[in-house]
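User: Last request for today: this protein with zinc ion, please.
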Amino acid sequence: MNGNLKLAVQKKGRLTDKSLELLRLCGIDIENYSERLVVSASNFPLDILFLRDDDIPEYVQDGVADVGIVGENVIYEKQTKSSVLEKLGFGKCSLLMAYPEGRELKNLDDINGKTIATSYPRIVKDFLLKNNLDAKLIELSGSVEIAPSLGVADLICDIVSTGNTLMMNKLKKSFKVFDSQAVLISASTNFKDDEKNSILNDLLRRIRSVLTARASKYLMMNVPKNSLNKIIKIIPSLKSPTVLHLAEENMLAVHAVIPSNKFWDIVEALKAAGASGILLLPIENMIQ
Ligand code: PRP
Ligand code: ZN
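Assistant: Here's the final one, the structure of the complex with zinc ion:
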């Protein structure tokens, strides 16, 4: 026991790289993690435990890890005692019903009497109950997508992210059961150990700054002096833009932080108003 905060992340899968990328953006360096179960960060009091994602809620509940990064799908399925500290905005996916090409599944009622293979029996049972449906469930811990071709099930209910797995197995998307993304969970926000609380608060502050920064971009451009007012009206900036003089008399530089998703809506209007040399830069951290 070294007093470090213990963070569980998925050992190998959809969330692994993005979880480590988030830590990197938080300024936390992890070296040489390949094939190791526990790795300590070199510049932050954090131990990273690489575990199967399905086991993470339980390890967090039992205190083996203090916090964990895992999909909402797994948390809902496992129903362990832990609370979500922050939604992380990556690992977005849906739990969907899917059926083999050449068959049909038009109405929810068509699910009645069918056999569904899934790794998420609890979520699927809730869905069936809520929709007043009756189907047989087969619980599989992996490779759910091959169940229909083996003749074990009529349908599957599984996580779909890019859709590649379904396509490769000649399965078609059907009803959506659950939407999910990666979240940071903890069994307690108030550990007995004060030191741990302060490490967790520091980590949370850093994560929140990365998430805010991700939702924003830094916009830079040159504008003719006489279009300044027009340009400022177009920019969806929360704060007043920065205006700088340029060596060229009649031109100004305008800088502003804008919501990432607004850029393509305004770029043509900016050009039409005379803006040139438009640059859009990512922001790594944003402290508010
Ligand atoms: C899910 C699911 C598929 C894959 C779908 O697995 O079981 O294998 O992701 O992704 P795609 O639509 O991008 O092809 P998950 O990442 O949850 O891993 P696990 O089943 O090993 O826990
Ligand atoms: Zn899993």
